[in-house]
């Protein structure tokens, strides 16, 4: 099967109420772990690369490794630019054969976000590529921020409708309480499902994307810490909440932090238990296996995309 856009997988996700995992990739082991899990689960999958990841792996290597994954499997795989910072980066990825790009204009005011998103949409659509945009601020909500300040960060459902109408974007990332990294909540983990419901009411046909959606899997954090890491008090979005999101209209769930933890936990374990080991295969093999287990669990038990390929 060739690389696909997200169009068909999102249509299916909205009709059948499940979400598709979008996993960040940086190297071969991460790509193989994700794709092996998705393939065994017969699930569609989105491989996404940030501009930092593209710089790290180098564009040609990244593209060819993803092509190898596509060649070896039979599931729908989309190659997506995560958090495209500007038009030029999005254009370069469209030209390089990505099937989906994100333009992240959330740092701008509404009008500038509309302008830059529309510019990317016009170019991408002319080349058969789909576009994800973002509206709202994904910053973590601090305990001492008052309600009005907190509400200002969430996506406004009326603005979402105007934004999609004016930009023609294919999917929309919204802010309902998640944030990037390993420290998402100080107290209880909570998402604003009321805002998600209002957004779905206003734009029922637009696939919704949840960024900052790692669980920050406690067992992996513990394992990292046991073998020498210093990651105290990390907290993410629990599986039950993500499962509810997948049933409530979220079509794409972004995961990077959990993969970082999976890889780090296993590499640390080998280094701690076998100080004489120095063959990279010795620690990258369990790291790749842990990524595969982590992704399989999400697909099967949380997002519901098994057998939806
Ligand atoms: O949302 C950001 C992703 O976790 C990618 O992070 O820019 O460090 O590659 P990165
Ligand atoms: P996490 O940091 O929660 O894994 O979020 C990743 C993400 O949103 C990538 O765009
Ligand atoms: Zn993100």
**Strand order of the biggest β-sheet:** 1-2-3-4-5-6-7-8
How many alpha or pi helices? 13
Q: Quick one: biggest sheet?
A: 8 strands, parallel, barrel
Bound molecules: glyceraldehyde-3-phosphate, 1,3-dihydroxyacetonephosphate, zinc ion
* Domain module tally: 1
CATH-assigned fold name: TIM Barrel
Name the helicity range.
40-55%
Overview of the molecule:
The chain is an alpha/beta fold and 309 residues long. The chain has a single domain (7-303), classed as Aldolase class I (TIM Barrel, Alpha-Beta Barrel). The chain contains 13 helices and 8 strands. An 8-stranded parallel beta barrel has the order 1-2-3-4-5-6-7-8, surrounded by 9 helices. Strand 6 (171-174), helix 9 (193-202) and strand 7 (208-210) form a beta-alpha-beta unit. It is globular. 1,3-dihydroxyacetonephosphate is lined by residues 24, 82-83, 180-181, 211-214, 254-257. Residues 24, 50, 52-53, 82-83, 180, 256 line the site of glyceraldehyde-3-phosphate.
Secondary-structure topology with pairs:
Elements: H1 7-16, E1 20-24, H2 28-40, E2 45-50, H3 51-57, H4 59-72, E3 77-84, H5 87-96, E4 100-103, H6 110-126, E5 130-135, H7 147-153, H8 157-167, E6 171-174, H9 193-202, E7 208-210, H10 218-226, H11 239-247, E8 250-255, H12 257-273, H13 280-303
Parallel strand pairs: 1-2, 1-8, 2-3, 3-4, 4-5, 5-6, 6-7, 7-8
Bound molecules: glyceraldehyde-3-phosphate, 1,3-dihydroxyacetonephosphate and zinc ion.
Residues 24, 50, 52-53, 82-83, 180, 256 line the site of glyceraldehyde-3-phosphate.
């Amino acid at each position: 099967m060739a690389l696909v856009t997200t169009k068909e997988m999102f249509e299916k996700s909205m009709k059948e109420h499940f979400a598709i995992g979008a996993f960040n990739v940086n190297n071969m082991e991460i790509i193989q772990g994700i794709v092996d899990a998705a393939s065994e689960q017969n699930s569609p999958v989105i491989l996404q690369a940030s501009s930092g990841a593209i710089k790290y792996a180098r564009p040609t290597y990244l593209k060819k490794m993803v092509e190898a994954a596509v060649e070896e499997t039979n599931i729908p795989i989309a190659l997506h630019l995560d958090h495209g910072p500007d038009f030029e980066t999005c254009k370069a990825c469209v030209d390089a054969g990505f099937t989906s790009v994100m333009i992240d204009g959330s740092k701008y005011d509404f009008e500038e976000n509309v302008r830059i998103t529309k510019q990317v949409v016009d170019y991408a659509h002319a080349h058969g590529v789909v576009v994800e945009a973002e509206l709202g601020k994904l910053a973590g909500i601090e305990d001492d921020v008052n309600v009005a300040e907190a509400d200002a960060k969430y996506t406004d459902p009326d603005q979402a409708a105007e934004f999609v109408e004016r930009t023609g974007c294919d999917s929309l990332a919204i802010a309902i309480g998640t944030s990037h990294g390993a420290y998402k909540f100080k107290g209880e983990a909570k998402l604003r499902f009321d805002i998600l419901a209002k957004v779905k009411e206003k734009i029922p046909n637009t696939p919704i994307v949840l960024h900052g959606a790692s669980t920050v899997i406690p067992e992996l954090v513990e394992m990292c810490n046991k073998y020498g890491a210093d990651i105290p008090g990390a907290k993410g979005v629990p599986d039950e909440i993500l499962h509810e999101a997948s049933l409530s209209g979220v079509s794409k769930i972004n995961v990077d932090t959990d993969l970082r933890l999976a890889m780090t936990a296993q590499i640390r374990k080998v280094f701690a238990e076998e100080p004489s080991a120095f063959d990279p295969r010795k620690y990258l093999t369990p790291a790749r296996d842990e990524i595969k287990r982590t992704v399989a669990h999400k697909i099967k038990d949380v997002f519901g995309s098994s057998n939806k390929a």
